[in-house]
């Protein structure tokens, strides 16, 4: 599962942010990984009574990375919000690395588990979500 996390950190590194899938990492492991491997991303203090998450942004504020945590502070899903210009690059990257399941959706198979990677091209941004496949 931690190797899947490597994918997401490398993914974002390719766009100036992060691309290692850190699903299964706890709060402290994510903070340590980000501090050591993605100094260009800064953690932001967030207060939210509905969700527990870590929020990172790059210095240009054009990429936001969210690690959604469960009550035990373990990452359950990841969301990257970035500039729309990366969409063609991400599709090409995912087509070469993962099994395409439908348009803008891929499956990452790792340690006997499947993770759904989905890209949504929205009006002002591109949103990449990684979560366990149900």
Structure description:
This protein is an alpha+beta fold. It has one domain (2-132). The chain contains 3 helices and 8 strands, in the order ααββββαββββ. It has helices at 2-13, 27-37, 87-97, and strands at residues 41-44, 52-58, 63-69, 75-82, 99-102, 105-110, 113-121, 126-132. The protein has an 8-stranded antiparallel sheet, with helices on one face. The longest helix is centred in the first third of the chain and has 12 residues, at 2-13. The relative contact order is 0.18. Residues 1-18 have low confidence and may be disordered.
Short description:
With 134 residues, the chain is of the alpha+beta class. The protein is 25% helix and 39% strand. The protein has one domain.
Shape verdict: globular
Main sheet: strand order: 1-2-3-4-8-7-6-5
Helix content: 25-40%
Mean pLDDT across every amino acid position: 84
Distance between the termini: 16 Å
Secondary-structure blueprint:
Blueprint: H1 2-13, H2 27-37, E1 41-44, E2 52-58, E3 63-69, E4 75-82, H3 87-97, E5 99-102, E6 105-110, E7 113-121, E8 126-132
Antiparallel strand pairs: 1-2, 2-3, 3-4, 4-8, 5-6, 6-7, 7-8
Notable traits:
alpha+beta; 134 residues; 3 helices; 39% strand; eight-stranded antiparallel β-sheet; single chain
